[in-house]
Amino acid sequence: MYDDHYGLSGRPFQLTPDPAFWFDTATHKKAMAYLGYGLSQGEGFIVITGAPGAGKTTLVGHLMETIDPERLHVIKIVTTQVEAEDLLLMVAAGLNIDGTHLAKAQLLAAIEKQLHAVARQGRRTLLIADEAQALPIESLEELRMLSNFQAGGYPLLQIFLLGQPEFRARLSDPRLDQLRQRVIAMHALEGMGADELEPYLIHRLSCVGWRGKPRFTNDAVAAIYRWSGGIPRKVNLLAGRVLLLGAIEEITSFTGADVEAVIADLEGDLAGAMPPSAPARPAPVPAPAEAAQAARDALRREVSAPAAPAAAAAPVPVVDADLAARFARLEARIEEQDAALRRVLTLMVDFIEVEDARPTRRGAAA
């Protein structure tokens, strides 16, 4: 809608990663330098981490456009808690191996054989695992084992691991000590700087034929940065909604107030999308029969134990009138049963004392 309104050839702030909109922020330029260094080394692991929306997927897409497919065979895996055996199957599929009916030893042998075949073609193999923070420890260990495959002292496989910031904590696990020793470079993607945001907006608009309208005032840019923290996906989300507002309201120059109004709408939408918190469940009320049994057990213990001074009863909260009446009837029944039980016990004690006082028949005969 807004692209037609502003005469643009496409959506400049789409959320789907698109390498065509690549913009060299300082942090992304450094990440590309690490990736380039890793490719030049041809071995080990390169680790890139960043918050959701920081541009990891766009980074990989840009990398793919810069490499020569005649010299590098790329296997790209987007992981979502993939177990070790399934991960091996995904690697095998990337090498055009059908490992469905192969045992693990056979599958590993087939992967190694195919890596050798790729190397004989004069190509190296690069494995890129995205969302690596979801990989179990066992799966990461399988990747380390795959990195051991060599030919003539040269590794057959290089691995890039992309993940969210918690992946760094995962790598500190003692079980991954050997993998950590093979990480030759690591970089954390950050949000773009405040001075990079306006050039970023202009760059993306220019990619779709922008001719100066709409434009963002300095306070509008500052408001976008405050809300997004410079995270590209959040910038795109907010800027796209701002342009939509501009198309509806026919705005050609956005101010900070316009951006703040859209932020309020966005935060309202996000708050509405959150599920309501579950109400606290009331504590279960014992059934009358269970309560009566419990009371009788307590009474028996009281009769068999020495009497103790009566303590002030703790106040019992009344839930409602009906429940209070049920408790009153239950207490009355318990008191009746208490009195009856005490009478029976008294009679039994009297009877036993009388019987003990009588001489036995054998003693009377003597």
Structure description:
There is one protein chain. The chain has 366 residues and is of the alpha/beta class. It is built from 15 helices and nine strands. The protein has helices spanning 2-5, 26-41, 56-66, 84-94, 104-120, 137-146, 166-171, 177-180, 194-206, 218-228, 232-249, 256-273, 288-304, 321-357, 361-365; strands at 45-50, 72-78, 124-130, 150-151, 154-155, 157-163, 183-189, 215-216, 253-254. Strands 2-3-6-1-7 form a five-stranded parallel β-sheet, with helices on both faces. It has a two-stranded antiparallel ribbon with strand order 4-5. A two-stranded parallel sheet has the order 8-9. Helix 13 runs parallel beside helix 14. The longest helix has 37 residues, at 321-357. The chain starts with a helix and ends with a helix.
As laid out across the biggest beta sheet, the strand order is: 2-3-6-1-7
Helix content: 40-55%
User: Radius of gyration over alpha carbons?
Assistant: 38 Å
Q: What's the pLDDT, averaged over the residues?
A: 82
Number of helices: 15
Number of strands: 9
* Silhouette: flat
Indicate the proportion of strand residues: 5-15%
Uncertain stretches of 5 or more adjacent residues: 278-289, 307-319, 360-366
